[in-house]
Amino acid sequence: xxxxxxxxxxxCTTILSAQNSDSNSLKVxxxxxxxxxxxxxNDVGAEKINLKIYYLKEGDINADYAFFKPKKNEIxxxxxxxxxxxxxxxxxxxxxxxxxxxxxxxxxxxIKLVEVLEYNVFHSEVNFSSMDxxxxxxxx
Length: 140
What we know:
The chain has one domain (23-138). The chain contains five helices and four strands, in the order αββαββααα. It has helices spanning 2-20, 62-67, 96-103, 107-121, 130-138, and strands at residues 26-33, 49-56, 74-82, 87-94. A four-stranded mixed sheet has the order 1-2-3-4. α4 (107-121) crosses α5 (130-138). It is globular, with a radius of gyration of 19 Å.
């Protein structure tokens, strides 16, 4: 009986540690932002802009980038660290009603979105590059 209890505890511990090992899982974070926070209040008639961040700490984010589509008033940001190629990947997708705002390549509007990512979302992520995020947004 004593050995059975010990084996049961070890079995439960391995299951819990496997569940907590989430380095390879896709993390999704959502933010509801007012257009003034993104400096686009004169360009859109929406009350809120939804920002969704798809973050893969280790792995290729391209499959997720191809799969997800933005909804109305939504900006999607995909960020992954591909350890096989030792590179970081960053992509943006925006809904059609917001696309005209970011196609203008206005520095003040682009940098506001990058600042939200850098200071509110990835402030503790050492490998996050605001310059790479800016370039990914400018490529829309």
